[in-house]
Amino acid sequence: MNFFSILLTGSLLTGGLGASAYALTNHQQTAAQTNETVKTISEIKAKEIALGASKGGLVTKCELDQDNGMTKYEITIIKQNEEFEVEVNAETGKVLKLEQELQDKAGDENKAEHMNEAPLQGVTPTISLENAKKAALDTIKGSITEAELDDEDKQLVYEVDILTADHREAEVKVDAVSGKVLSTEFSD
Hints:
Helices cover 31% and strands 37% of the residues. The chain is an alpha+beta fold. It has two domains: 37-103, Nuclear Transport Factor 2, Chain: A, CATH 3.10.450; 121-188, Nuclear Transport Factor 2, Chain: A (Roll). The strands form two sheets. A four-stranded antiparallel beta sheet has the order 1-2-3-4, with helices on one face. A four-stranded antiparallel beta sheet has the order 5-6-7-8, covered by helices on one side. It holds the Pfam family PepSY. It comes from Neobacillus citreus.
């Protein structure tokens, strides 16, 4: 019986050591298995890069987007009668796309017909997109998901979309000339 107990104890001990070794080797993450966090450039840095590419202007829209596994900033800039669409790689800061479009009277009139309103002539925003975002966040607490300059009812407004802590979506409209919050709407 004594021999049998030693044999059983030895088997249990060997099995226990084997299981421990298995747990230590097969369940530890290797460098290849860990999820590395990808470092992205800041929104401010992306705007600086885009403004450099367009040689100045006013940023009217900036959003972080994921496209085909690549994270990028999509930035819209207005400069006199030109509109620039700039895409900046969020990891490297490299300009991926720079499109320039002249805003002529025909284009403005077509846009106005589509919106059933007359085009705004000679009106430019006096507050920045950043100040509009701040005003919106002072009104509704949360995270900004999108912000853009828009022509609404013959008035330039920044439309700022915010996701609140309770996962509700809000749209805050800020007057682009005075900086006053015009309206706040929650979507269900």
